[in-house]
Amino acid sequence: VHFISGSAFLLVLLAVELYHHLGKNITENQDSVDGEQIPVTLDGQDATPPQLTTQLEPGRFVRNWIITHTDFDGYTSGALLLRLLGKDSSLVFSSPRSLLRNLKEAGAGLMSGDSITIADLAMQPQFEHDFADVLNELRNRGIRVTWIDHHEWPAGLIQRMTSICHNLEVDTSVKTAAALIRRRLPEDDEH
Q1: What average pLDDT does the segment 117-136 reach?
Q2: Cβ atoms of residues 56 and 88 within 8 Å
Q3: Which residues fall within 8 angstroms of residue 71, CB to CB, at 6 or more apart?
Q4: From CA 82, how far away is CA 85, in angstroms rounded?
Q5: Engineered SS bond to 122: which of 37, 115, 134, 151, CB 3.0-4.6 Å?
Q6: d(CA 110, CA 105)
């Protein structure tokens, strides 16, 4: 008999729930293994490297990319955002280190009117100019970027990024990004 902690059990339940309801719309884009980038889908099948796939199934394409952290708050945030944004959305798990690369890849297959939502990931300030370039390019192409985070950001960075992102919400008074996202769901939502 194997015992797992309550939080590990909840994580397993969340993963099973996501898989059953959303199928193969979930991708984990790991940083690397032995220097090679290896994206893996939830069911263990290889994803299409090096870019994130934009086709969900024949004739249906991703309109909303969700990029979220590889921890329990990120998983929960991703599940809530998938519920909020609907069936034309796909999810990629990212570390802070791979966020810029994942943002570029997600934006590559999108068109005007599509969106990217980043959750539970703070911007690395040393890459502010690189992020600004990518965010401005996305904005110029008509792609909406929403960024939701609960981590501390360096002074002035929020103000500078607010002019580039369509919606930037950084609230350190809450403990999780999932709590910020939950506020966006209707009050009568069962989940």
Answers
A1: 96
A2: yes
A3: 120
A4: 5
A5: 151
A6: 10
In the chain the first and final C-alpha atoms are separated, in Å, by: 31
Q: Is the pLDDT of residue 91 over 70?
A: yes
Contact between 102 and 110 (Cβ < 8 Å): no
Is residue 178 predicted with pLDDT exceeding 80? yes
Residue 122 confidence class, pLDDT cut points 50, 70, 90 = very high
The answer to whether residues 61 and 111 touch, using CB atoms and an 8 Å cutoff, is no
pLDDT for residue 88: 86
Read off the tokens for 159: 């103000």
Classify each residue of 135-160 as buried b or exposed e, where b means 16 or more C-beta atoms within 10 Å of its C-beta. Answer: beebeeeebbbbbbbbeebeeebbee
Please enumerate in sequence order all residues whose Cβ is within 8 A of that of 96, keeping only pairs 6 or more positions apart, or say none: 69, 121, 122, 124
**68-86 as b/e: b if 16+ CB within 10 A:** bbbebbbbbbbbbbbebbe
Instruction: Check: CB of residue 67 under 8 Å from CB of residue 103.
Output: yes
The DSSP code for 126 is: G
Residue-wise DSSP of 35-93: TB--EEETTS-B--SSSPP-EEETTEE-SEEEEEESSHHHHHHHHHHHHHH-TTEEEEE
Distance from C-alpha of 163 to C-alpha of 149, rounded to nearest angstrom? 17
10-21: pLDDT as tens digits: 555 555 455 444
